[in-house]
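Propose amino acids for all 354 sites.
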């Protein structure tokens, strides 16, 4: 294990901005992870666990602590365990998420096909309860293996103990900084029916027979690409952290108010089930566009994707301060017009005030 000093973090994030980490190490095993944690503790510096860097905004000042890139396990493809009806797979934290989705779909299993094209590593998916097009990873996760930084012991947390909710879990809320994910156990119903609930997918497969998971996987990638939400080399819209804002969940009765403010009919306000009775999810992109932010909007060297307003992009040489300034402008405008405060998705590192 090699521990490096003063390593620029910009190259480890999909946004491509941010300063340096005082210490940096790539941990490829649980043993190396423990060694890195002990190294940081011996020096009394804070620890940050880095996955694929796809949901991260690093400050221009960097991080004066130890960044541990959890690359545990890498690409392992022989972890399938067949049970009576279901199939279980233990995915190491360092496995590329999109590769895992591709492999699962090739096997014909449903459950993650709508999350194709999402960047990052498997270990980061339970933290944010990653989801897209009607699916969330919590729907197929049965347990998560973690290093408990309080006891320095490895243990398994059942899905019920992870506190999964919309884009959240105990790992990024009540127990933030307590655990490091090293492995995720997924369980798939081998006879499951593909998920086709979102308009984009329903439109794509209109009039076609029930598509296979692999077909849905490919369709989702194509849709994400059309919206600038797929990491493609050379595409300026790909230098982002993906969706920068969460879709707000509001009381269903508030939809009428949104329609009145936007000057449109009730049926013109897009919304989806909000997960709780009487609640709906309203697209943050719809609110942003009606608050005056169009595709390609720019503020200095930071801007919005030319394909989808929900992605804040690095137009070249962008600083974290410019990203934050654009974020604040968007949040302020949506709040002023609709009375809704947008919540950002990316984790912030090295900022004195989040």
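Proposal:
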């Amino acid at each position: 294990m090699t521990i490096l000093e003063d390593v620029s973090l910009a190259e480890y994030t999909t946004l491509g901005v941010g300063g340096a980490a005082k210490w940096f190490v790539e941990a490829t095993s649980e043993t190396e992870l423990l060694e890195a944690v002990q190294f940081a503790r011996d020096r009394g510096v804070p620890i940050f666990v880095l996955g694929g860097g796809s949901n991260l905004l690093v400050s221009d000042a960097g991080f004066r602590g130890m960044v541990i890139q959890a690359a545990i396990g890498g690409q392992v493809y022989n972890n399938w365990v067949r049970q009576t009806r279901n199939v279980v797979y233990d995915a190491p934290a360092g496995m590329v998420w999109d590769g895992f989705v591709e492999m699962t779909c090739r096997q014909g299993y449903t459950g993650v096909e709508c999350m194709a094209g999402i960047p990052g590593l498997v270990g980061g998916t339970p933290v944010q309860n990653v989801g897209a097009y009607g699916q969330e990873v919590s729907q197929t996760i049965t347990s998560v293996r973690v290093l408990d930084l309080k006891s320095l012991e490895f243990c398994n947390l059942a899905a019920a103990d992870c506190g999964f909710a919309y884009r959240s879990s105990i790992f990024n809320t009540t127990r933030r900084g307590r655990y490091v994910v090293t492995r995720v156990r997924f369980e798939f119903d081998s006879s499951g029916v593909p998920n086709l609930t979102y308009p984009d997918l329903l439109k794509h497969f209109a009039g076609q027979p029930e598509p296979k998971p692999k077909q849905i996987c490919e369709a989702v990638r194509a849709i994400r690409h059309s919206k600038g939400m797929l990491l493609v080399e050379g595409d300026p819209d790909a230098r982002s952290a993906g969706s920068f804002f969460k879709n707000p969940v509001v009381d269903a009765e508030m939809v009428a108010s949104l329609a009145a403010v936007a000057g449109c009919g009730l049926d013109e306000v897009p919304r989806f089930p909000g997960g709780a009775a009487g609640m709906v999810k309203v697209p943050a992109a719809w609110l942003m566009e009606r608050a005056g932010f169009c595709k390609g909007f720019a503020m200095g060297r930071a801007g919005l994707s030319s394909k989808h307003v929900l992605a804040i992009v690095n137009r070249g040489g962008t600083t974290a301060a410019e990203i934050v300034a654009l974020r604040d402008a968007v949040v302020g405008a949506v709040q002023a017009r609709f009375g809704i405060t947008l919540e950002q998705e990316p984790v912030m590192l090295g900022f004195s005030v989040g």
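Residues 320-338 form the longest helix (19 residues). The two ends are 32 Å apart (CA to CA).
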